[in-house]
Specification:
By secondary structure, the protein is an all-beta fold. It has 3 domains: 85 residues, no CATH class; 135 residues, Jelly Rolls, CATH 2.60.120; 139 residues, no CATH class. The strands form 6 sheets. Strands 6, 8, 9, 10, 11 and 14 form a 6-stranded antiparallel beta sheet that branches. The chain is rod-shaped and about 145 Å long.
Length: 396
């Protein structure tokens, strides 16, 4: 008995000589496709985000006949149709485009006097902390441009670039939670830091104290190995920033405190009848700032009622009377006395003085290890003028 060619028809039924073999129905459960085990062996979706599979479908097994006489051959033709499927995850070389919004780091907890235009910070090791959670199963590198801003303007064209995309040390976020410390020395002792990155020019962001630091962040996956990503899931990278400024300064520090004592002429104008060539101005200063400050003679201006500098008045300050002692804890003020010596060939020079302007500058290397805060202050509590020979005038 000869058997004619049979085919698997609709319903997965195999028909031989119009006889139905019900046990021929097979159901295939596809749980995934593997196109290769190494990078480069995969398949790239087309512009419609689809993958077309063209290849052989192999069925292994045996066909057994019984109770049949004669000779011949048995041929089976197998047609497999796969309907459109939804992929839940993929494993491969995945380098997604990750978009990050431009953010700002605000510097709100610093004393107002640090924002003086002449102030220049030279901090030994400022630290910017990037806290970020990477939800992918692969490292994410971070390239960033940090720009110091005053109002809406960039300060002096300065910017600091970090990350391997700019030829700098890579900044890598491992899977999970990360605390990346960007610092001048590449070292810090802040608890919880998972990675230290050396950024030698980071002080450029704080040399002139900005209102805030603009951060243009570009996360990039550069990994060329295989990893698995879920499809249809919104991967996020929650992040935040902190600025830590340990109070240790280098030689280029220039912190400036400007103040003045004015309307002195109403107390001094009667002295035009007194012949004087010398006078001493005693300033009593309370300092709650954890920095030693200095008053140099060249940082004192003597002005008349019209705002003109009295250039004929010579100013000197003895070395041990130039310094304002620092507060050791940044809270309890320390009182200091500064003595400014005034001399002039104009015997009526005191009667012409209306305003004394002075500029105090921080002494490099005088840091106490206590951070600068906006609650710290400095105040001239009294100013007195004395004339050798016994004339004393209270200018408060």
């Amino acid at each position: 008995m000869m058997f004619e060619k049979g085919e698997v028809e609709e319903g997965n039924k195999l028909i031989l000589n119009n006889e139905e073999l019900k046990n021929a129905q097979k159901v295939l459960h596809v749980i995934g496709y593997q196109f290769g085990g190494m990078a480069g062996e995969g398949e790239i979706p087309d512009k419609n985000r689809t993958i077309t599979i063209n290849g052989l479908v192999t069925m292994q097994g045996q066909v057994v006949t019984s109770g049949i006489n004669g000779s011949g051959s048995l041929t089976m033709t197998l047609d497999v149709t796969l309907e459109e499927m939804t992929a839940n995850s993929v494993t491969g070389v995945i380098q997604p485009e990750i978009k990050a919004e431009t953010t700002n780091i605000e510097l709100n907890d610093l004393p107002d006097f640090l924002k003086d235009e002449e102030t220049r910070m030279d901090i030994t090791n400022p630290v910017i902390l990037l806290r970020a959670e990477n939800q992918l199963e692969t490292p994410v590198e971070v390239d960033a441009v940090l720009t110091p801003m005053k109002g809406n303007a960039q300060i002096d064209g300065k910017e600091v670039k970090v990350g391997s995309g700019y030829g700098k040390t890579p900044v890598v976020l491992a899977s999970g939670k990360n605390v990346i410390a960007l610092s001048r020395t590449g070292e810090c002792t802040i608890e919880g830091v998972t990675s230290n990155v050396k950024v030698e020019d980071i002080n450029d962001l704080l040399e002139t104290i900005p209102d805030d630091i603009e951060v243009d962040l570009q996360p990039v996956v550069r990994n060329e190995g295989y990893y698995t990503a879920e499809l249809g899931r919104a991967y996020e990278m929650p992040s935040s920033y902190e600025v830590d400024v340990p109070l240790s300064f280098e030689q280029n520090l220039n912190i400036v405190y400007n103040d003045s004592v004015q309307d002195l002429n109403k107390d001094l104008n009667d002295l035009d009848k007194v012949i004087l060539k010398k006078a001493n101005v005693l300033l009593t200063v309370d300092n709650a700032i954890p920095l030693k400050l200095q008053l140099k003679p060249e940082n004192v201006l003597i002005k008349d009622v019209y705002g003109n500098e009295l250039t004929a008045v010579k100013k000197t300050i003895e070395e041990d009377k130039q310094y304002v002692t620092e507060s050791t804890d940044g809270e309890k003020p320390v009182t200091s006395e500064l003595v400014l010596n005034l001399t002039s060939e104009d015997t009526a020079f005191l009667s012409k003085i209306d305003r004394i302007c002075f500029k105090l500058t921080a002494v490099p290397g005088s840091a106490t290890g206590v951070p600068l805060k906006d609650t710290q202050w400095l105040k001239v509590t009294s100013i007195k003028l004395s004339v050798p020979g016994g004339v004393n005038v209270d200018l408060n």
